[in-house]
Design goal:
Layout: H1 14-35, H2 40-68, H3 73-95, H4 103-130
Helix pairs in contact: 1-2, 1-4, 2-3, 3-4
């Protein structure tokens, strides 16, 4: 079930690949901590890091899209905004002790990371490469 970087996730933009690798690492770390029964504070710290880094990454990706006039920016941003809302809801429930880092949360994170990168982010690869962003 662990999420790992593979070539299907390559969007051909070095900085975005690097950021995607970091997101995948954080999701995988959260999964590993959940599976090994790490203490609440370690899970909380990793969930906070994932939330913070996701916001940072989305801003960077959106900045590049706006800078270069990416045609599907609005749709892409909606996906980002919806994910942040869902992640913040989960984090808020987790912080309040109403949910745990569960299989359901991990499946959501893994499916979203894979689905968004492969299904949505890959769409900008050619656009960025054509204008020299690699």
């Amino acid at each position: 079930m662990a999420l790992q970087w593979n070539d299907k996730l390559n969007v051909n933009v070095k900085i975005l690949n690097s950021q995607h690798r970091r997101l995948i690492f954080l999701v995988s770390e959260l999964h590993n901590f959940m599976c090994t029964g790490k203490p609440h504070d370690m899970l909380c710290k990793t969930l906070n890091s994932l939330s913070d880094y996701t916001v940072y990454h989305f801003r960077e990706e959106e900045r590049l899209m706006m800078l270069h006039g990416y045609q599907d920016y609005d749709l892409h941003k909606i996906e980002h905004d919806n994910f942040i809302i869902k992640l913040r809801e989960c984090k808020k429930k987790y912080d309040a002790g109403r949910i745990t880092v569960s299989i359901e949360l991990m499946i959501f994170l893994m499916d979203w990371v894979n689905g968004h990168i492969i299904g949505t982010d890959k769409k900008y690869s050619q656009f960025f490469n054509d204008i020299g962003v690699m």
